[in-house]
Design a protein that fits this description.
alpha+beta; globular; tRNA-splicing ligase RtcB; six-stranded mixed β-sheet; 398 residues; seven-stranded antiparallel β-sheet
Length: 398
């Protein structure tokens, strides 16, 4: 259940956090609640954790303006999950390592990319709008081509999961998390700079440059909105291409028709801004590390690479602006995780999961994340849990 923080801010802060916030986190949240145009309150999700400017796990309503930096650089980052008709017992332990290696080959991870884009990339309809993007990115068409269908770095991942509560009746799920790659980052940077110039000329005081804004109805706003929508479409296509390649591989591996092995598809986005209506007002809702959880909206809430992932259905809680957490959330920085844990710790905490245990993924060790079951309990008024998943293969960039 939510708690309204005891802060002397312009608008209230309503929090579902599973633990007390640090002083730095509370100061960051207060800056958002004191920023101009924010109303009627700020909502913090159960996985809320530190990030500069805006905490990851923030839902921010604004009237008449958007804050490009609150959306961030990975515009349209989100998750895609597909339940397959394949039974979990098809994946014998001896096949897992081979399957992980093939997925890593099909889907370039980290800073890797595809040298020769294939037809599924070249045929994307969004390329028709590429010349309408900001002039500074048009020279990077080739990079955008070669990065589509790739995972990227950070905590982006692909997991092959089972339904542990279904026993022998468990189906296989493919779950992946990725975004708009380098071009999304570039567009985010460009429009943040545009917002700083616009805000400086507006005469309106903001807490710091992070809260530089663009006002609806201006050419600067229109340019950002158009580029953001394109980046979101790019991110969606990126996820779809990776998913299609993995499913095609499984269909061939198990001698199935790839057009008939998908039983269910769920997709959600957690870095974006949308026009919505809340509390009788038309506002812009920025979800930074949060997903929409309206009535019957399905979502994906992952834990760590050793913990459960939940398929959820939204309850449209008005206090959260029909939102919920996008994952478990970090409880420890990447640097601290690498300093504190060893490859042996990683191997123990990912027992039963086919993944890289060499130590290159220490920053993603399960102990660096909050307990996903506690997060789910804290947001029981935001979403209903539909299915619990557990990974048997994890592909993560390093």
């Amino acid at each position: 259940m939510p708690l309204t923080l005891n802060t002397n801010t312009q608008v209230p802060i309503v929090s579902w956090a599973t633990r007390p916030m640090t002083g730095e986190e509370q100061a960051t949240a207060c800056q958002v609640a004191n920023a101009p145009f924010v109303q009627p309150h700020v909502a913090l999700m159960a996985d809320v954790h530190h990030s500069s400017g805006v905490l990851v796990g923030s839902v921010i309503p604004t009237k008449g303006v958007v804050y490009p930096s609150a959306v961030g650089r990975d515009i349209g980052c989100g998750m895609l999950a597909r339940k397959l008709t394949l039974r979990a017992d098809l994946f014998k332990p001896k096949k897992l390592a081979r399957a992980r290696a093939e997925i890593e080959r099909l889907v370039a991870v980290g800073t890797n990319y595809h040298t020769n884009p294939e037809d599924d990339v070249l045929g994307w309809s969004g390329w028709d709008r590429f010349e309408q993007l900001h002039p500074e990115v048009r020279a990077d068409h080739q990079r955008a081509l070669t990065q589509m269908g790739t995972l990227g770095d950070g905590n982006h991942f692909i997991e092959i999961c089972v339904e542990p509560d279904q026993g022998r009746e468990s189906n296989i799920w493919v779950v992946l998390h990725s975004g708009s790659r380098g071009i999304g980052h570039q567009l985010g940077e460009i429009h943040f700079e545009s917002a700083k110039i616009y805000t400086g000329q507006s005469g309106i005081t903001v807490p710091n440059t992070f809260f530089s804004f663009l006002r609806e109805g201006t050419s600067e706003f229109a340019a950002y909105w158009s580029d953001m929508q394109w980046a979101m479409d790019y991110a969606q296509a990126n996820r779809a291409i990776m998913m299609a390649r993995i499913i095609s591989y499984f269909a061939e591996l198990f001698q199935q028709d790839e057009n008939s092995i998908v039983a269910q598809t769920i997709e959600c986005v957690h870095n974006y801004v949308a026009r919505e209506r809340h509390f009788g007002e038309d506002v812009f809702i920025t979800r930074k590390g949060a997903i929409r959880a309206g009535v019957d909206d399905f979502g994906i809430v992952p834990g760590s690479m050793g913990a459960s992932t939940y398929i959820v259905r939204g309850l449209a809680n008005p206090l959260s602006f029909s939102s919920c957490s996008h994952g478990a959330g970090r409880k420890m920085s990447r640097t601290k995780a690498k300093d504190r844990f060893s490859p042996a710790d990683l191997a123990r905490q990912t027992q039963g999961v086919e993944c890289d245990k060499s130590g290159r993924l220490l920053e993603e060790i399960p102990a660096a994340y909050k307990n996903i079951d506690e997060v789910m309990a804290a947001q029981s008024d935001l979403v209903h849990s539909v299915t619990r998943l557990k990974q048997i293969i994890t592909v993560k960039s390093y």
